[in-house]
Amino acid sequence: MPRKQLATELRRLREEAGATLEQVARELMISTSKLSRLENAQGRPQPRDVRDLIRYYGLENTTKAEQFMRWVRTAGTRAWWDDYADTIPGGLDTYLATEAEASVIRVYTLPILPVLLQTLDYTRAFLRRTEPWRSSSEIEQLLEVRSRRRQALQFRDDLPPLKLIAVTHESSIRQLVGGPEIMRDQLDYLVDRSAMPNIRLQVLPFARTPPFTSTCMYAYFEFDDYDRDIVGIETHAGFRYFEAHDQVRRYRRYYDDLLATALSPSESLALVHSVRDEFFVS
């Protein structure tokens, strides 16, 4: 993501300046192919090259310049999820990279609760049931990944805490995962997390006619410093991503329909409390 963001901005600046790749490369005394790789997010951007481009475009001592150098630092840093490359499912690394840079994530899930709002006991029980081929050590590694992801809701280096807007289907709060005690703790945790100022939870109830996109899980990523939003769709076959403006714009309308159809945040929490009380442990 940092490489893509930097590439998009550098290409936009050059086009706005009415300059060709050859002209800019000649002024900076670098090869045209090197500049082209920078503008196409290929390879790791070098601080000196980006510094020279900042000067060339007259951006020294600006917020934009600080933003560029943050992207360079991030692009040059090994991602924390690389330590779990042998364990995480295919395609999840791209999702994690997108999630790490997003300012807002709008998610819709069924029939399980949003990943960032799950307790570790709930996640462990779900993984043991749905991925029985994994060893205990692999499951614990996946739980470590979940824990690292949840931290973004409270703290992130160089970025404010992630804002989460979640709509989940009523089936997800009623679907028994791990047993009544785990479910009660999970729903208590859901209520507790919902009190955070950067988290908004709404439930799509059985009693409402489902909107168009309520049959699959997806996430709508928004960025403070990237000129386009991204949609990630999750299925049993893996992840797909949309960046084309017309497709992304449609999914934003779809998500707005979900918010309008779902119970309000207060009504949603009332339903969660009601369902929680059904999971009494004998």
Automatic annotation (TrEMBL):
Pfam family, any one: DUF5753
Positions in coiled-coil regions: 3-41
Entry keywords, A to Z: Coiled coil
Annotated InterPro entries: Cro/C1-type_HTH (IPR001387), DUF5753 (IPR043917), Lambda_DNA-bd_dom_sf (IPR010982)
Residues covered by the HTH cro/C1-type domain: 10-65
SMART domains named in the record: HTH_XRE
A molecular function (GO) term: DNA binding
Name of the molecule in the record: Helix-turn-helix protein
Organism: Actinocrispum wychmicini
